């Protein structure tokens, strides 16, 4: 009976803990900001995006995690269905504002953006 009470008490504390919900809300806000920055940096008006809010395991794994300076968000994008998926890794500060974007997209190699790094 004591074990049952202990399990019930710990379950109640876990369910009523607001920290995971607050962290999830913060992560969602960061990913939404990252989507906007990605569209601006690539010049694509309405890219198809696979990111932590819209994962697609067929395309690849996506992540959001805290870094020393803010956040890191990874994912994939494409211009339309005829385009292949392009991986990206975006660094954001705590604000969140984009500080660096790495993409693997040869169409952007001549882009003049100091925050954009185009990988071969």
Q: What is the helix content?
A: 25-40%
What is the percentage of strand-forming residues?
25-35%
Radius of gyration: 19 Å
User: What is the count of distinct domains?
Assistant: 1
Mean pLDDT across the residues is: 93
- Helix-strand string: HHEEEEEE
Structural category: alpha+beta
Extended strand count: 6
How would you sum up this structure, described in words?
The protein has 2 helices and 6 strands. It has helices spanning 2-16, 19-42, and strands at 48-50, 64-66, 70-78, 86-93, 98-103, 116-118. A hairpin with a 3-residue loop joins strand 2 and strand 3 (70-78). The mean pLDDT is 93. The protein has one domain (22-118). The protein has 120 residues and is an alpha+beta fold. Strands 1, 2, 3, 4, 5 and 6 form a 6-stranded mixed beta sheet that branches. It is elongated, with a radius of gyration of 19 Å.
């Amino acid at each position: 009976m004591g074990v049952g009470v202990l399990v019930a008490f710990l379950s109640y504390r876990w369910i009523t803990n607001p920290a995971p919900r607050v962290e999830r809300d913060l992560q969602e806000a960061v990913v939404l900001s990252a989507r906007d920055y990605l569209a601006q940096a690539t010049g694509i008006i309405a890219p198809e995006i696979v990111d932590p809010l819209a994962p697609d395991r067929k395309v690849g794994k996506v992540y959001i995690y805290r870094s020393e300076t803010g956040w890191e968000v990874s994912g994939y994008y494409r211009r339309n269905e005829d385009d292949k998926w392009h991986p990206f890794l975006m660094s954001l500060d705590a604000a969140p504002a984009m500080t660096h974007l790495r993409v693997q997209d040869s169409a952007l190699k001549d882009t003049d953006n100091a925050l954009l790094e185009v990988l071969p």
